[in-house]
Amino acid sequence: MKPVLSVASECAPLIKTGGLADVAGALPAAMATQGWDMRTLIPGYPAVISQSGRGRVVMEEDDLFGGPARIRAVIADGLKLLILEAPHLFDRGGGPYNDPSGRDWPDNPARFAALSWMGARIGAEGVGRWMPRIVHAHDWQAGLVPLYLSQRGDDRPSSILTIHNMAFLGMAPANLRAALRLPESGFTQDGYEFWNQISALKAGLVWADHITTVSPSYARELLTQEYGAGLDGLMRARAANLSGILNGIDLEAWNPATDPHIETYKSPGGKRRAKAALRAEFELDEADGPLCVVVSRLSDQKGLDILLDALPALVDRGGQLALLGSGDKGLETRFRQAANAHPNIAVHIGYDEAKSHRMIAGADAILVPSRFEPCGLTQLYGLRYGAVPIVAYTGGLIDTVIPATPMGLRTGVATGLQFHPVTSHALAGALIDAVTLYKRPGTWAALQKNGMRQQVGWEASAPDYAALYEELSPD
Question: pLDDT band for position 268 (50/70/90)?
């Protein structure tokens, strides 16, 4: 087995705020099938330490951005983890990035510079006799890994930076350059400087040996001004070193036949029973139209503001909506108001992993109206569980949902509905189409069956990562 180090700020099932955690948690098993021994470096948040056991200390650091730290190697939930224990940075309440009130921790630049620093050190020195050939960093929180590695000289592993969401640039004030151990010479337009501040993501984009993102369409979108977050020029300059590799999902965690959170699909009528249970859980009555779900962070990026405006097209035709999510307080309030105003809308503010499984299992359709979506995982869960995706025409949603156009339906390949542009009017049209198709049971069943036959795991993408690792590995 060839060694590779993954550096991530979250990793399911130990700590999760979004799709990054799911990918970081699923990728090691996927890469093991390709002959790669992946170990994952993650911060020692209280939730991680409480779930991971004792393990053994494999590395110590006397002064890691303000205090001592150590790396503990453990195996938890089948994952080979290297846990960065730095109590002065990670032993606190709240979430990985936010305090209990929801505000960013003010020392986030130092917290994730520390993660990157230790990722580079493990990459250059190894732990014990385990020496990675590749260091695979994820998003801005690990964006400084390639830069720190570059300071280690030529005898170092190659680095890959995967962009899960270009919208988060990892910004920090310029006066933190020395405190973050960044080279002064790199604070230029061609380095890690961005609008006279530090950008951890930009540092990774400049210094990584290769850049990947999580779908082919999103890789192309990042070359444009609309999606490039001000770094589209840099992305075009690095286009020869950019790959779009589609995410997969964990087929064991998301398996309708064995999912512990729902009734089994093995017997006839499983979908029907799951739908009835979901309606009961959300206190929704029987209805003539499709039961649609949203499982999402509530934000404008996710297009949930336009969904609010488009909802009459669904509920006035007998459709229903059950929503699970949290985020923007204004959107939370508006969805609560919509639920109070209409019996076919039900809302749960918050997040509950088991509930998300039950919702997708019981849904007729899953809505993903994102303004941009690097890959998206919820539509993949929907395909796996027979919840027809209704998605915006953007990013990975383009690459994973075959639209129910007349030709797509006629040839029997369609798996969902797409809409464009990302407006409430276009989404309303897609919802009306969904109600129409739902009232043609044979057509709707074909969409569900087509979706459930799709390859949504890592079986197609793991070989692409393996080929990239091989290409970048030193002889």
Answer: low
CA 150 to chain centre: 27
Q: What CA–CA distance (Å, rounded) separates 207 from 211?
A: 10
On whether the CB atoms of residues 113 and 73 are closer than 8 A, the answer is no
Residue that is written with structure tokens 């503001």 in the block: 305
Per-residue model confidence as pLDDT tens digits over 209-255? 999 999 999 999 999 999 999 999 999 999 999 999 999 999 999 99
Asked if residues 114 and 172 have their Cβ atoms less than 8 Å apart, the reply is: no
Which amino acid belongs to residue 371?
Answer: R
State how far the Cα of 23 lies from the Cα of 113, in Å rounded to an integer.
Answer: 21
Distance, CA of 1 to CA of 3 (rounded, Å): 6
> Tokens representing 440?
């043609």
Identify the burial level of 43 via C-beta atoms within 10 angstroms of its C-beta, where 0-12 means exposed, 13-18 middle and 19 or more buried: buried
Pick the closest to residue 15 from 48, 43, 52 (CA basis): 48
Place of tokens 């850049």: 211
| Beta pairing, strands 69-76 & 56-61 | antiparallel
For the chain, helix (H) and strand (E) counts, in that order, are 18, 18
What SS3 state is found at 398?
A: helix
Q: How far apart are CA 18 and CA 55, in angstroms?
A: 27
pTM: 0.94
- Reference 159, options 466, 470, 472; nearest CA is 472
Contact 134, 4 (CB under 8 A): yes
Q: Which class for 171: exposed (0-12), middle (13-18), buried (19 or more C-beta within 10 A)?
A: middle
